[in-house]
Amino acid sequence: xxxxxxxxxxxxxxxxxxxxxxxxxxxxxxxxxxxxxxxxxxxxxxxxxxxxxxxxxxxxxxxxxxxxxxxxxxxxxxxxxxxxxxxxxxxxxxxxxxxxxxxxxxxxxxxxxxxxxxxxxxxxxxxxxxxxxxxxxxxxxxxxxxxxxxxxxxxxxxxxxxxxxxxxxxxxxxxxxxxxxxxxxxxx
Length: 188
Fold this sequence. Notes:
This protein is an alpha+beta fold.
C-alpha cells in the first residue's frame, strides 16, 4: 500500500460524472443536511447530529484524521454541480500488514436512487487498486441495508459472511454485520 500517495496531499478522484474531493468549511450546510437526517443513518453506526456547531467541528476532525493518516473522508460532488456536496465516502482501518482498507459511504437523501453511490464506490475502488496498490477492500453492512448491498455487488464485491453480534454501533447497540470484500485479483 502506497501510503505516501494517499497522504502526501489530499487526493482528488474523478470520473466523467463525479469528483471526490476534500470537504471544506463552506460545505457546512450540505454536511449538516446529511448528518442531521435520521434516515441517512438508519443502517449506520453513526448517531445523527442535530447541532450545526457539532457538525462544523466534525469538518476539523476530518482534517485531523487525514493528518494522522488514519482516515480519509471525501465529499462526493457531481461534475455538473461541483461545489454542491451530495455525499461522503471514506476509507478507514488502513491495515498495511495485509494491505487492506475498509470503505463506507452515505448520500444526502435528496440524491438517493440516482446511481451516485455506485459511481463513487466504482471510482474509489479503481483509485485504491491502481494508484494506492491496495490488495483488499472491504465494507461492513447491516443485514437489512439492501440498497448498500446492491451498491457493493454492482461493483464486484462478494458477500463473505455474517458476523453475528460482532460490533457495537453507536445508537444501535450490538449488531450483526455482513462483510463484503473485493480483492485486486478479482478486480483485474
